[in-house]
Amino acid sequence: MGFGILFKFVIMITKQTTDNANIVFTCSGTSKHSTELTAEEHSLVRVLSGELKVIQADKIYVFGPGDTHLFPRNRLALLVKSDKGDDPYRAIVVKLTHDVLRSFYESHPGGINPIFKTEHIVELDKSPLLDSFFDSMLPYFNLEYQLPADLSQLKIREAITILRAIDRNVDNILSDFSEPHKINLVEFMQKNFMFNMSLEKFSYLTGRSLATFKRDFKKTFNTTPQRWLTQKRLELAKFQLTEKKRKPIDIYFEVGFENLSHFSYAFKKEYGVNPRDMIVR
Prior knowledge:
Blueprint: E1 13-14, E2 23-27, E3 32-38, E4 42-49, E5 51-55, E6 60-63, E7 68-71, E8 76-82, E9 90-96, H1 98-107, E10 122-124, H2 128-137, H3 149-166, H4 170-174, H5 185-192, H6 199-205, H7 210-221, H8 225-242, H9 248-251, H10 260-271, H11 275-278
Parallel strand pairs: 1-2
Antiparallel strand pairs: 2-9, 3-8, 4-7, 4-9, 5-6, 5-8, 7-10
C-alpha cells in the first residue's frame, strides 16, 4: 500500500500505513516492498531507517536515514522500500491536505511564480527545523487514542511553514490548486506507460474524461489504450532482459505488470518464449 494513495481527510496518528491518515508512521516489515504512487495530495516524507528508491519516468532517487523530500501531488512514481541489514524500512509521512493548504495561503499570501513548475520530487537539504519537526512527532505514535484534530492540523501548518523557510520555490508548488489540464497525449503516454494505473487515472492526468481519453487515444495510436500499453510494456521488458540482463522477478513490476505470473503469460504469448529464457539468447 503506497504512502500517499487514496488518503482521506481523517485526522489521526497511526503506527502503520493506513488509508485514513494525514500523518503516518510506515514500516515495510519485509526485506523489499514495491508499490506505485499517484498522490492526490502533496506529501512530506522523512526516511528513518532502511532505504526508499523512487523511480519516475526520467529520474531515480534513493533516500536513506535522515533524508527528507516533498512529493508533489499527481506525480507518477514507483516506490521500492527496502530494509538495510537489521534495520527495517521506516518513515514518517505528512500529507499536506488541500483544506489546510487553502486555509494557510488565505492568511499567508505571497508572490507566486506561475512559470515555475516541477515534475520531480523536491529533495530537501538537511535542516535543524526538519529534524526538530519529525522528532516532535515520534511520541505521538505511542498514543492509544487519536491525535486531536486541531493538533494534527497545527503540525501540518508547521510543516508548511518550515518548507517555506528552507525552500523559496515551495510556494509555487503548494499554492497551486489547479486540476490537470489537457496535455499532449503522445508525450505523456510515451513517458509514463510503465506505470500500472487505471485508464481512469491516465485520463484524469491528461486532462480528459475517460470517454474523451479513449477517443483521442484511438485517433492518435490507432489501437485501444490497453493493447498499446501491453505492447509497450512488453517491449520494455524485452529490452531489460536482453540488453540489461536483468531477471524477470526484478523487472515485471517496473515495466507495469501487477504480478510475475501475468507478466510471464503475456510475454510468452507475445514472443513465444518464457521471459527467463530470453536472458540467455
